Amino acid sequence: MAANAERSAPRYDVTLNPSDAELVEEIAWKLATQATGRPDDVEWVEAARNSWHELPVALRRTLAEFRRDSGPGGGLLLRGLPVDALGLPPTPSVNGSVQREPALGAAVLLMIACGLGDPGAFRPEKGGALVQDVVPVPGMEEFQGNAGSTLLTFHNENAFHEHRPDFVMLLCLRADPTGRAGLRTACVRQVLPLLSDHALETLWAPEFITAPPPSFNMGDVEEPPAPVLTGDPSDPDIRVDLAATKPVTHRAAEALRELQDHFDATAATHRLAPGELAIVDNRVTVHGRTEFTPRYDGTDRWLQRTFVMTDLRRSRAMRPADGYVLGDVAQPA
Questions:
Q1: Chain centre to alpha carbon of residue 106
Q2: How many Cα atoms are found within 13 Å in the side-chain-facing hemisphere of 306?
Q3: Which residue in 17, 42, 164, 254 is a FRET match for 139, CA 20 to 30 A apart?
Q4: How far apart are CA 76 and CA 115, in angstroms?
Q5: Residue in 129, 150, 60 with CA at minimum distance from that of residue 305
Q6: Cβ partners under 8 Å of residue 128, min gap 6
Q7: Which pLDDT score, from 0 to 100, does residue 4 have?
Q8: What pLDDT shows up at residue 257?
Q9: How far is residue 281 CA from its own chain's centroid?
């Protein structure tokens, strides 16, 4: 595995060497064609976990290092993964599209998810599928979510949720044919020293309310105000969704505007190519997407997404039968 050595490159920007790429493809195809059941099944995930241990040592070492310390950019870009680009069907164009059947991309995502922690999903979101399609959908161009094609504002994934993902994985199966769609990421570790003292003090205060998306059907229940920054002052976690986090004070509104300005100033943009996997540390990094114009002809950008939880036990009360899907409300064990 060779790393990009340019000084300006992210700390975690790696490319599989040919022999490692060949081995990953062999193991992924074996999982996709021989594992019992479907990717959402517990048995399939366990097969993916076993397959993870067969992957190249260099890949497993890199992921272990990233899990422990995601670096100043809070993200990883892994290139050279197998996606069966020649065998792909047309890009889906329906809302809620997911990958329920065994496939090469699902195998890659779930093996790596098992290396970082455990895959996880939320029942109200795309039916709780562990592997979800990120594709533009006709009529949803202005939607602030994975089905839209307008500028997607910076956010932590499911920022409102107590058990939001620790990592968000996005595997590119098909690139945007126009070359415009780009994943944008910004890390609090780079923004923190740029914030004014006033904004910094405010972001640590419980003066922000983050609403859930309509898909979670939480009605009019309103959470109490919470801070945007938590944890160690020298290396805090961040919890914000610039489309859904509302300030409850004037100074909180000013702090959010300053935070957005610094996100924009420090953001990195990745125009993903087939076989490239972006992993976002959702605890310290926000992500979004540039605006683009879909064609809706089967050639549009197609990513597949899987969430990772590093401590699945914390959400046990919300996961029926100790599975990988969090329900609407706490369930008895």
A1: 15
A2: 29
A3: 164
A4: 14
A5: 129
A6: 40, 121, 122, 325, 326
A7: 35
A8: 98
A9: 8
